[in-house]
Amino acid sequence: MINRKLIRPIHRLLSLGIGLLCLAVTGSAKADTEPRRDAAAPNVIMLMSDDQGWGDVGFNGNDDIHTPNLDAMAAGGMRLDRFYAAAPLCSPTRGSCLTGRYPFRFGILAAHTGGMRVGETTIPELLKKKGYRSGFFGKWHVGWVKPDDVGSRGFYSPPSHHGYDQYFATTSAVPTWNPTVTPEGWDSWGNEPGKPWKGGMPYVQDGKDVSENMAGDDSCIIMDRVIPFIESNQDQPFLATVWFHAPHEPVVAGEEYKKRYKKFGKARQNYYGCITAMDEQIGRLRAKLRELGIEKRTLVLFCSDNGPADSLSKKGVASAGPFQGHKHTMYEGGLLVPACAEWPGVIPAGTATDVRCSTVDFLPTIAHACQVESAIKSSLPIDGVNLMPLLTEKVESQERELFFGYRRLQGGIDGKAIISGNWKLLQEAKKDGKLRLYDLSQDPYEENDLAATSPERLSALSQRLAEIEASCQRSRDGADYRY
């Protein structure tokens, strides 16, 4: 006879065992489906200011402008004392950051003259192959972000066409305070003071115009979108590209920031104030990384897109430091920009280098750090080099050439330059631009033109410049892409 009193507890034990087994199987399945963080996949944050001169930051010796957070970032990692933008103006440089290629190669030769081609391989596209989430925030300027706003000199090519999973972007410049409204006293391009700036809704978020949280400091408005992106992706690798508008014209600072510079005139109050406001948001970002405990697995890169704006530089408001030139010139002041890199535990703190580096180096550097170098298409020539050995002090020098340029043939502008070793050959960016030759090891401020006294060096560098430009022309005409 079956003892039913014994069956009940046995049945309960069997049920409990089966339940625990189900939970274990379910948990295992859930673990297999959830994204796992690769220990060799650091987060990457690319920060860029707009028209900030080499001398417009504390860590390069400016005692007037308050940039405590950028200074702390430079002190926490490596200061890049000879870091070059690929061009002396915004759009070409921005494209070089994303592709690792010279602007003359991918075809954006000046501002508002084209857009990023989908044939280019970008950093977010490479990182997507390793499971990264990518977000873009700020000034895009390598293509229009609104399909209905396409102008005569460019085309619709938003961040989502180039690997970004989400974006909050403008096509081009906005006021650095209240970005939807034309500021008082503004008498240049844009609109009349007090009227909507470029229609009143210059920002697009994932294809939709943005009207909320658009008042006050533009750098804060951008960071308000960056922080949630980082919080929501802290458990998986991410790329955040944050391209501020500060301190590009129209340069406006809020009253609280202008008060910090009350001993200066109005122009400096606005210029210095908007840089300090941007710096404050960079501090907010660094604090968030530490709050989340992810700063030691995050590589943060900072630079400007070119030298200081022409008018503000000539007035003595903006600074290229001791270097000659400004935005739109091929001199050091137009190309050298403030830059630093931070990755706690990987990049030694308190270090600096005067090795020449460039925005074209971002892609190969990030590809190496994130172990996606094998995903770079062999059909796409990469002009940059991997900076990780330099950033980690495994090497102290890197032999390489650097090529710079921008072109507006309609106005007779065809500026180019090449640095080979310590020698620099430049063609001035103006009609019938003169060739000039400098030995940067002896003359870093380009005061002594050696073109007339060193004809052999002039000839050799001119030939090399022509070879690089011819290679870029082939790329631009389609040699790197499949049809």
From TrEMBL:
Q: Which Pfam families match?
A: Sulfatase
The protein's UniProt keywords, in alphabetical order, are: Hydrolase, Signal
What residue stretches are annotated with the Sulfatase N-terminal domain?
Answer: 42-369
Q: Does the record's keyword annotation contain Hydrolase?
A: yes
Q: Which InterPro entries match?
A: Alkaline_phosphatase_core_sf, Sulfatase, Sulfatase_N
Give the signal peptide, or none.
Answer: 1-31
Give the family, as the similarity comment puts it: Belongs to the sulfatase family.
- Name of the protein this chain belongs to: Ulvan-active sulfatase
From which source organism is this entry? Novipirellula caenicola
